[in-house]
Design goal:
Strand content: 5-15%
Strand order of the largest sheet: 3-2-6-7-1-8
Shape: globular
Helix content: 40-55%
Structural class: alpha/beta
Distance between the termini: 74 Å
Largest sheet: 6 strands, parallel
Mean pLDDT: 83
Number of helices: 30
Radius of gyration: 28 Å
Number of strands: 18
Length: 688
Amino acid sequence: MLAESVLEGLDPEQRAVAEAVKGPVCVLAGAGTGKTRAITHRIAYATLTGVVTPQRVLAVTFTTRAAGELRGRLRQLGAPGVQARTFHAAALRQLSYFWPRVVGGEPPKIIDSKIGLVADAARACRLSFGRTELRDLASEIEWAKVTQNRPEDYPAAVAGAGRRPPAEVVDVARVYAMYEQLRRERNLLDFEGMLELTAAVLTEHRDVANQVREQYRYFVVDEYQDVNPLQKMLLDTWLGDRDDLCVVGDPNQTIYSFTGASPSHLLGFTREHPGAKVVKLVRDYRSTPQVVRLANGVIGRAGGARHGLELVAQRENGPEPVFNEYDDEVAEADDAARRARKLIDEGVPAREIAILFRINAQSETYESALAAAGVPYVVRGAERFFERPEVREAVVRLRGAARAGADAETEGMGLIQTVRHVLSGAGFSDRPPEGAGAARARWESLAALAQLAEDMAADDPKAGLAEFVAELEERAAAQHAPPLEGVTLASLHAAKGLEWDAVFLVGLAEGTLPIVYAKTPAQIEEERRLLYVGVTRARVHLALSWALSRSPGGAQNRRPSRFLDGLTGKAATHTPPRADRSKRRPAKGPQPCRVCGRPLTAAVERKLGRCEDCPSELNEELLIALKEWRAQVSAEQKIPAYVVFTDATLQAIAERGPESLEDLARIPGVGRVKLDRYGDAVLALCGH
């Protein structure tokens, strides 16, 4: 009965995956088609029907977040003992366990980042590189290692792959050779070496291989289109001569070939495993028919076969995607911020909105625009959530409270109130602090933990503090951070695997998407797949945009991405009128003090428009009235006070006493959106 209940609610294709409990199995899963649901139900059904015990299953994926999600779902389905890990985590666990037996001595130290060692190698070669170049060199060495190319093989490998090396080929090869020499001398091991060494230990020590293969008899590999040659070698070593393997992937989402990943393993699975069962998931439960239609249009123009993965929408109709053209990137960012603000006002949570771009350097313009519009945001890829000092402190407090029996002390309060009570000791309060600095960031982190407690209580009303702490510790181990309240800013690569109610795809111009250095047909097609990934992140609202020039006043010689050709139909196209440049955010440059004329560098000085020690008349009564008005607006609109206006902006208003909307617009922090929203009320307080 329990096993059969696992199959309930699955669509026919998902059920076919779940019931295919013996390998080999290949699942071609389109975006939003429920692949995680299918494979977790397959594992649960296999364990509940006695095909395999949970402890004999190894589910492999590419991110700790995805591994954590797999474990969580499997627990809920009644298969809590399944091991779900990344390739690197599984290899490290095995290598650490067997090291004393097969090698002995001091085990090597695992390095998280190559950059420091690459810098030492470059200096030893008497070569000088900047931080960005060192990062690119580290990535190039990683590519060489995952594709199993030694330093002496690197020049020929680069030529054969048509790669664009970050420096002269000879210099990269020299740095690569020195990197390997220093790594061995210092007894260090990078992630690629860890995979390679684990495979070598299993190959050379039959007793070790037998023990690992006895432990793991049932394999599931997610995102199989992203497997690189080194990971494939380790997987083959784990399998031995068995074929109880289920792979899941989407060739239309192959976007990491520059790192050595290859969809050939997924597409060639049936050649490697004749007789393998193949199931295609095409029912899209994520996006509206309008978004799905555009996604199919994007990938439908790709060169080569589409592998029969044309998505079929399952949701109700939604708004058509919009296509916007702007004079310049500043105007593009301003309008994205305005539209995000409007969505939030209409009830879309900020955490359910994302602005996605091709390269990380595009983030800064959107950060400025969102800040000017008073929209909170989170940059994906910044500091890891569970490594933040305030989060570490909070987890320690919660762990201590659980051990001390805080549930008993706060009996009747429930998990939500218990967690909030403990977090209050770390500085958490129901209302966020004013401003957007460190205090605000600290509050946001604690608020995310409080929200996680609410989510857990909703899923399991009987959950207590001990269960919540266990959930936090598992999430920390998997780096599975709870969502933070704010619009997400992320690159298209970083957005893979995620989804939002509303998505803005920005910077869709030739030279950016496809990126200027994508030259070969294969590289161009990978850029097209990036756009496909971006489109399929959206559930309901989708906006695509490009700018004709980089900066205000620049030559408007850009053109929309070739990938949009034939897709921007008149019904879906919107070209906004040329914006009044006087209302734009000014181009970056030194802002002079309005009193002494000295260039202003500190953020608070730029807000005030003067040096902190320059004289200025402050209307204290007006400042008090402005703060009282802001508190009222904050309460009515249920938004943080700083989102209305920061303290520095209110002080600047009280100092200058603007007499018109034009005067008010000249004050930093009063953007076009805030001028429209609050301008009349502020002028009324100023007596105008």
